Protein 1
Amino acid sequence: MFNIKYDLNTIDEKRNIIKNKLFENSANIKQVDFTQICNSDLYLLYKLYDEIFFNSWFAENFKGKITFKFSKQLTRAAGNTTTKKHIEKIKPEEVEFQIKISLNHLFNFDKIDRDKYVGGIQAKSKLHSLMLVFEHEICHVIEFLICKKSSCKKEPFKKLIFNLFGQNESTHKLVTSREASFAEYGLVVGNKVTFEFQGKQIIGIINNINKRATVMSQNNKGNYMDRNGQHYIKYYIPLNCLTKI
Ligand SMILES: [Zn+2]
């Protein structure tokens, strides 16, 4: 079944069928720009992809387990797939995969007005982007099952995902939290900022930005030290509480 090759029109038609079935069956996804989603939607997506792209191969042949989860921790990667080491030595019924999909990329989708891509395909909506990321991750599962290892940087994966889903790149150009926070607050790593903390005005430098900013503030009592022996206290501060100076 993994020798399937679909042409691009067929792939689009199949994606459309999945989209409509999602609207019918999901409690959250009623339109392409949904505002709520939960892990059960990923299980539904898996069931639909199995039926519509894989002719129910997973339902009929796969004896292991896949768990699906939305993640708030993924910041660069839009998704990831993990399994135990030495999968070739594990009994088929004990094989397990975990697929995580980044929530940040989904909910940042509309924060920036520019074209977004996943796997070389322009993602037209939040739902389209979710489906493209999902396709990438499920290809990792398939490659693990066939080859006992998987790498999206290598040729076999690239061929697999192109044949099944028409994706011709292994990267995405979705909106990261960093890009969104720059657009919303004008803040980037390295900015000098000030904020109020327990009644005091603190000054520091932004060291990292995810949902909140990590700000390092010089202080002789701090536990963090730089190369010059300077001490710092680390703060995690919501972006809307920072003022650039
Ligand atoms: Zn990958």
Protein 2
Amino acid sequence: MDLDEVVTELEKVVGERYISNRPEEQFLYHYDFVTAEPEGKCDIAIIPGSSEEVQEIVKIANRYKIPVVPWVSGINFGSIATPRKGGIVVDLRRLNRVLEVNEDDMYAVVEGGITWADLRGYLNKYHPDFRPGVTWSPPGTGVIPSCLCYGMFDLGMLGGTGAEFINGLEVVLGSGELIRVGSCSLSNYWYGRQPLPDLAGLFIGWEGTTGIVTKASIKIWPKLPFRTDFLISGKEMRIGVPVMLKLAKAGLGICDICILNVGWAQSLQGFDEKYAILDPIKQNIPDFVGLITTQAYTEKQHKAQCEAIQEICKEGNLEKSTGGQTPIQFWGCWNFSRGGGGQWIGSYCSTRDIIKYYEISRKICLKYNKPHQFYSRILFGGHYCVARTNINFNKNDPEEIKTARKLLKEIHDAVQQLDGVVMYKPPTWAIRTYKDKMIPTTRQLIEKIKQLLDPNQILNPGQGIGDE
Ligand SMILES: Cc1cc2nc3c(=O)[nH]c(=O)nc-3n(C[C@H](O)[C@H](O)[C@H](O)COP(=O)(O)OP(=O)(O)OC[C@H]3O[C@@H](n4cnc5c(N)ncnc54)[C@H](O)[C@@H]3O)c2cc1C
């Protein structure tokens, strides 16, 4: 294939300014700057300005059978936006507008490349009584990829995963057709996916391999006047976790519950491995930290909720450390400076297995002499949860990268002994495990759907569960 010919064709769609095959731009898109995954290769970077332009790009890519990778900030931790087979990286960040806010049905219709900073900034300015969920990811990361990839926010107890915040989508399929799913497929309202066949699932959990979302309706929530964030500490996970699960079922205006260990919590002001406590339990340092957020409409209601939360914690032998408003961006546990990298084994699992997940991953981290950073978030009123271990490493040190990969793989394989532990944003090596485990007929259905939506297999090839 003559790449210059492809560039000439694409240039007609977006204009010279928004396309490049120069090495300096290729470099920006060829890898995930935080992970230890092998690097990829970007041949052409392009920045479309409308859904129609995205559609034209995909049509051209189909003619040349060249890969197309949707991209917003490329720091998802699984390296799932890394172009594995070269081709065109479609940087969606010009599609960053809020198109509509419906305060009655509480949603915002946004473009496919909008970042959290864009969305929150817009709502603060024009709809100050409403807010989106807030992730712990940097503000410049994408809203749509977070929702499509089962990310999670500080409203997870109310709304579930990011996927459940999606009301409807406009998507350019791998075939180049543009479709809409949800109420927006037959009306001007984007209020939800009910009661039509729920086609949003064709794009959720597929890592951009079935379509490029150009518009989406995302649920927003009212800002309630009273809010308290409790930081609660306890001696060990096996004491703290049951209390958090009890709270999850108690109502009490709780919109977020996070379970952290001291390895995570100690580094909230910025992680420095030199000073990290390696084995808190051995040093008799309390290892459980719970973060509980409650909110209310009236002061009286709020006071009652806070008292009940404290009562339940006291009964469970947990101590309240702080009650107030904590910083919402909790990513100090990573150190990205001077070669700093990070990756995780992040999984959905049953709430029954949080402690077991923690214990297995703690043991393996200790074996490798690496600080264990553990996090679990209880979602959707306690119906399920995320559990994960973060590992920091120096990207400039090949030996450290090798160790990090080995350690993460070991945790992944070891937690597979727990039933139903499945990684979100899975790196390519984890996908194989799930394909092998899955009921064959389900796997075949996934492959058929992928074939239908992306007949030339051009969308983000080499990634996702539908890849051959
Ligand atoms: C320090 C740190 C903390 C984080 N904490 C959180 C957290 O608390 N919660 C959370 O949810 N995430 C978190 N993340 C992960 C990640 O940054 C977010 O999920 C983020 O929103 C993903 O955006 P991105 O711009 O990095 O996506 P990208 O890496 O650009 O894309 C991710 C995937 O989605 C696909 N994709 C991108 N855009 C589209 C589109 N429009 N249509 C179809 N497919 C598309 C890509 O091809 C890729 O497969 C964190 C990341 C970091 C670095």
